[in-house]
Amino acid sequence: MRLIVEGASLRVTQMGPDFLLVESPANHAPCEASLLLRVDESESQWKVRLPEGISKGTNRVALGPIR
Q: In angstroms, what CA-CA distances link 36 with 10, 42, 62?
């Protein structure tokens, strides 16, 4: 699973109902991003909102509804 934000691809290590845990976080302002899920030969991608952006200091990323 990967989080695609502003052209950067971050590996997602865990996903909850309103958060993600990412590997190697980098600073990003609040924005929309895409979540990519690949299982075997199948791939799905959907838009997510990052209402608090991403902070390099923590691997937890809040998710919000797309408006």
A: 10, 11, 16
The Cα–Cα gap between 39 and 59 comes to: 23
Taking Cα atoms as reference points, which of 17, 21, 20, 1 lies closest to residue 9? 1
Instruction: State percent of the chain over pLDDT 90.
Output: 96
d(CA 25, CA 63): 15
Tokens of 31: 């924005």
**Distant-in-sequence, close-in-space partners of 6: CB < 8 Å, separation ≥ 6:** 28, 31, 33
Percent helix, strand and coil across the chain, each rounded to 5? 0, 60, 40
